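Fold it.
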Amino acid sequence: MRLYNKICIQNWMDNMLTWNPRKYGGIEVIRLPYNQIWLPDILLYDNADVGTAQSSVSTNVIVSANGNVTWLSMWIFKSSCSMDVRYFPFDVQNCSMNFASWTFDAYRVDIRNFAKDGDLSNYVNSSEFEIVEFSFERHVVVFTCCPEPYVFMTYTLVFQRKPLFYLFNMVMPCILITLVALLGFYMPNDSGEKLSMGITTLLSMTVFLMIVAERLPPVSDNVPLIGLYYGMSIALISLSTALNVFTLNVHHKGLRGHKVPYCLKRVFFGIIAKMLFLKIDLPVAPEEGMEQVPSPRYIVYDSEPPPATNGSGSMPSRLGHKPDMEDPSQKEFVRILHRVNKTIDKNDQRMAEQDRRDVINLEWQQLALVIDRLLLVLFVVVVICSTLSLLVPGSEYSHPVAENE
């Protein structure tokens, strides 16, 4: 639907309105009310408003002595034409208006345009559209109902939308929101705000998509370019939120004590980390378990005292009998010493196991860091490519007028 405010100048010859100026005091031109003479019933065939006649402003007609009649009138036409919003906001619209007589065929009213090009001298510039072309064409149409031909004058307006308003108010916020969502890959995994940032940016993008949908005509023939861009941005933000969940799972997987597979270490720590200029410093994991302290020969004395030395200070023979320990204090001291050694042994083993788990946990955290940086780079590249595909229209949709013609 298009609305046009147009000054219509019609000129025709009427043999019933001729006179000899010498008989009437040299009067060659007169003005008569338009509703008191014959007027051609030329109408807009693509009219979309039944009240067009009420919105017209008609003045007196100018009649010359030779029968030349000029009618200057101003009309507000509301025409129906299809809108192609495939490349919105870089769309180019082609709208045609067909004017013809409603009851007079080509033998009675022959419509011609004496101008070579469309006249845009009285055109008032629009802040939303820019007229690219204004042309007209005369053609004759024969309807199935009547054998007489009818003359049609088709005026074609080609206008292009000015995209600055939509780029500043719709595209730029979309780019900024998408970049903010991608910063979730740069946020530390221990902050606890990665998922909340992704969900917040997803809701913001949905609100902007609703605003864009209100600005577009409800057509289902094709999806506008900016609609595809918003849909792709929402998909990217949703995917980034899902991948943030994955990296959080990788970050905390070391708490279970599972080692990082060797192939992942080689790929992410040896290749990808160097490509992303990330320095990975991982401590060497200690060996599992430690040597038991004290020596195994003391372990057998859980209920019996350990072998004691003889008076000369030398150990008895291993094949000999066990010495008697009559002193209860010495027996108790040996038992306490054994418990202390056993406790120290367990503590050393526990600390070694904890160190090993800490190293494993650190490896998984470093792996999650590398994955975050890799995803950040990939998503930034995808956002830049998608934005350039919108802001730098290709030749296939730079001039869609030729396709419509």
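Strands lie at 2-13, 29-32, 42-44, 57-58, 61-64, 68-79, 92-101, 129-142, 149-161.
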